[in-house]
């Protein structure tokens, strides 16, 4: 259904966040970002040096470690390749970022308590960099989580829940 919308010039608004679902039990997925992120060390680690898995109500997920430059670039590529280059989305809610656990281990070695509030700021910067590199201003994205300086990296803010 959504693929037919473009015929009429309609582009849906979608939803993204920096949490990658554990898809080990999901059949028929097109791109296994969870396994790729695990294999390449792109996720926040727990105190034992393993991927820090967080359980929400419906999924189990890992968080992209934006203190790792390779993970930063990987997420930018996901945004550019899956959201921008295909031209299917008119924009998205660029959500979350506030879940960084205080006992996490980060690639850079920064204290997670100090990085906790910077995480959503970096999440905003990743998408801004991706869109700047593509050179588009036709995509509208908005955030809810952030800090006082996050506004420089997003196009709109939703004041949240």
Any overview of this molecule?
This protein has helices at residues 2-5, 33-40, 69-84, 112-115, 118-134; strands at 13-16, 19-21, 54-55, 60-63, 91-94, 140-143, 156-157. The radius of gyration is 16 Å and the shape is globular. It is an alpha/beta fold and 161 residues long. The chain has one domain: TIM Barrel (Alpha-Beta Barrel). It has a four-stranded parallel beta sheet, with helices on one face. A hairpin with a 4-residue loop joins strand 3 (54-55) and strand 4. The protein is built from five helices and seven strands, in the order H-E-E-H-E-E-H-E-H-H-E-E. 27% of the residues are buried.
Brief characterization of the structure:
Helix content is 30%, strand content 14%. By secondary structure, it is an alpha/beta fold. The chain has a single domain (2-157), classed as TIM Barrel, CATH 3.20.20.80.
Widest beta sheet: strand line-up = 1-5-6-7
How would you characterize the largest beta sheet? 4 strands, parallel
Named CATH architecture:
Alpha-Beta Barrel
Q: How would you describe the shape?
A: globular
Task: Domain count, please report it.
Answer: 1
Query: What does the oligomeric state look like here?
Result: single chain
Indicate the low-confidence ranges by residue numbers.
none
CATH class: Alpha Beta
Number of strands: 7
* Annotated CATH topology: TIM Barrel
Strand content: 5-15%
Give the helix/strand class: alpha/beta
Could you give the distance between the termini?
Answer: 30 Å
Task: State the fourth-level CATH superfamily.
Answer: Glycosidases
Number of separate helices:
5
